[in-house]
Amino acid sequence: xxxxxxxxxxxxxxxxxxxxxxxxxxxxxxxxxxxxxxxxxxxxxxxxxxxxxxxxxxxxxxxxxxxxxxxxxxxxxxxxxxxxxxxxxxxxxxxxxxxxxxxxxxxxxxxxxx
Amino acid sequence: xxxxxxxxxxxxxxxxxxxxxxxxxxxxxxxxxxxxxxxxxxxxxxxxxxxxxxxxxxxxxxxxxxxxxxxxxxxxxxxxxxxxxxxxxxxxxxxxxxxxxxxxxxxxxxxxxxxxxxxxxxxxxxxxxxxxxxxxxxxxxxxxxxxxxxxxxxxxxxxxxxxxxxxxxxxxxxxxxxxxxxxxxxxxxxxxxxxxxxxxxxxxxxxxxxxxxxxxxxxxxxxxxxxxxxxxxxxxxxxxxxxxxxxxxxxxxxxxxxxxxxxxxxxxxxxxxxxxxxxxxxxxxxxxxxxxxxxxxxxxxxxxxxxxxxxxxxxxxxxxxxxxxxxxxxxxxxxxxxxxxxxxxxxxxxxxx
Lengths: 114, 353
Description:
The complex is a heterodimer.
Chain A: E1 10-15, E2 21-26, H1 32-38, E3 57-60, H2 62-65, H3 73-79, E4 89-91, E5 104-108
Parallel strand pairs in A: 1-5
Antiparallel strand pairs in A: 1-2, 3-4, 3-5
Chain B: E1 2-3, E2 8-9, E3 15-17, E4 20-23, H1 27-38, E5 43-47, H2 54-58, E6 64-65, E7 74-75, H3 76-87, E8 93-96, E9 100-105, E10 111-115, E11 120-123, E12 125-128, E13 134-137, E14 167-171, H4 175-184, E15 190-195, H5 204-215, E16 220-223, E17 225-230, E18 238-242, E19 248-252, E20 255-258, E21 262-265, E22 281-282, E23 295-297, E24 302-303, H6 311-329, H7 344-349
Parallel strand pairs in B: 2-8, 3-11, 4-5, 4-12, 5-8, 12-23, 14-15, 14-20, 15-16, 22-24
Antiparallel strand pairs in B: 1-2, 6-7, 9-10, 10-11, 13-21, 17-18, 18-19
């Protein structure tokens, strides 16, 4: 991924299941899952973003939950196939990155392990 | 043998001989039948799913695919149906709902592939087109789950009678969870369904039936997620269920049936003796042959410099693989490269001439 202007970078903070946090540079319009996968972080995401598998399950930091577009019925249905689902559970393939979401904090959740 | 609309399914447990065994009946495995067929090479396909199509059928049957050359838009199901139609003239045999469990070289030089359903197939060439691996049930990440698996925790119902008179708990919110709750209920001692939320994605009709039964006291519905299991030596005595409010409910039961969909695992292919790299099979880029001569790997399961996991890459790999497979299957025959547009013999094979 290329990010030419540092100031314009959309930052996505991702905590992996081993507890380590990394700041990733996202591009507008990319799905959070695609950014995580592009950086080579451990995420299964086996359906490739079709909202069909629940293997890109993440927890969203409390402060960010209400800033995201709420999950569709399709995403809620698919979360039924994830484990340890919480109020702040989302499928990262359904989060589209925008400049307003710069700083978003996600934690990889059970079921996302490759 | 069952003749489906476009394909022949073999009954499990028999022995077969063929030219090429294809492991995986996804789009790439199916197209391999076409490329092999044009060269008069016969094939048998083995897949763990009950129907052909692989990820296209299982993960995204209704999702549009936009990057098949010359096909601006097609669904996973549509692509599967079209491929089945395209390869119909070649009469491939399908072994469905079976997992390829072992691959051994016999003394006569042929490979023998065995499945978990007792089927065996001998052939000089094997093509691994297994995508992300075989689809297997998702296992809940509950600590200490293993000892219960196969004793008290089951991911599929093979014999309903095994649950007769038991206290059964089904977990999940889809069709499998609802269907099995309803089907097993008449024979079990008690039936309960646990799901993380009050809404269900299963067919509305079965959800309605379940709610009616719950209201009449015929079964129980619990809202929450299973946090832990208890009972000694894999014999389940009950589970702890965590509610949305964080409360723990104790639910005594003998059997737990979790239905959380399927996920892909490499599975027994890892033990076939093939070189592996990050759970992928390295191949050359002329023939897509693996570290074992006469064993090929095509589609998402292989890796080579520049590999892209695209259906179209898999199609290309199938075409090149077929050339070399022909040389192994018909060592004394001359390989003639022909086009379907002009070759009368190819058109006859396709049944269009």
